[in-house]
Amino acid sequence: MIIGSVAAILIFVWFYNTAPRSGRNPLNWAIAGFVVYFIIALFWTYFINPGIKDAAMHSRNTFLMYIARYAYIVVSFAGAVFFNLTVGKKKPED
Predict the structure, then answer these.
(1) Residue 42 half-sphere exposure, CB side, CA atoms within 13 Å?
(2) Is the pLDDT of residue 40 over 90?
């Protein structure tokens, strides 16, 4: 949980720092990055992770347990990076 919070803060700071290159308001862009991270993490936690947890508990596979605990961070981080690199490079329309 703490690692996920640190990742969310890093996403917030990164989006804040990359806002000027695309001509966006830094605070709004940072909030957008945090929201993208949070929505992906929420979706992963409630829809995909229960199946992984169930498989991990029945097989006692350590690798699956690590995936069940930490994969949401990697997936959410990747989604936020993808969002910043695709949407962030475009200048907003006036």
Answers:
(1) 6
(2) yes
